[in-house]
Structure formats: C-alpha cells, structure tokens
Specification:
This protein is mainly α. The protein has one domain (2-81, 118-138). The chain contains five helices and no strands. The protein has helices at residues 2-18, 23-48, 52-76, 85-107, 118-134.
Amino acid sequence: MERSFIKSIEESFIKANKGQEQINVVIYWWGVLAYFISYFIINKIIFLVDIRAIDILIALLTSIYFIWHIYVLHKCKPKQPEISAEEKKKIELEKKKDMPKKIIRKLFLREPICKWNTISVITAFDLLGIAHFSGYFFR
C-alpha cells in the first residue's frame, strides 16, 4: 500500500511537469495541501530550529517548491481553443443580447457578481508563500 501511494505521487509529479496532470490535482493536492503543510509544519520548524543556516535552507526549499507550483499550474491549465474573427464577432453579439438578462440575474443574486479566475488566485497564494518564506533569508 505504501509503495503504491509513493508510486502514484511520483507519477502525478511526472505528469504535472509534462503538463498532462488534471488542474484539480495540481490545485488541491499540490497546492492547497502544500499551503497547510507549509503553514502548520514548515513554519513551526523554522521557528523551533534556531540555526540560521537550516532556517534559510528550509525556507529556500519551500520557496523553490512554490515557484515550481506556479510553473506547473500554468503549464497544466486548460488551453483556450483558437477561434476565428467571425466566431469572436458572433460571441460578442450574443453577449450583447444577453447582457440585460445577465444584469437582472446578478441583481437578484441568481448569478455571481464576479467570477474568480482560480489559476490567478492560486498563483497569488503561491506568491504570498514565496514572499513569506523569502523573508527568512533576510532575518
């Protein structure tokens, strides 16, 4: 059981580096789980270990991980299909027709007021992690 778990992690890591991993796996297993581990475990280790070289090494490895996560996140994100100029005009006309209905749905809270770009939000969390752990370099 333990062998298969490690093997599945290795396979997921290889697929993520190739850009073939599903985006939900990259976000939740490689991202959100890493945020919790870095906050609850790695941050505590840095505070408990009072040797500056080890603190810098741990912070450096954590920052490198978050840089890697940004790279993989953008490599695995779903690609937008290329559309022609005619199709773009058609989509814009449809949006103009649906705009009043869309505004009414937003006013009555049938539709979210703003939509989150998940990739951008996760990238912001990664950048926050990089900024936090790179602060240990200059302490």
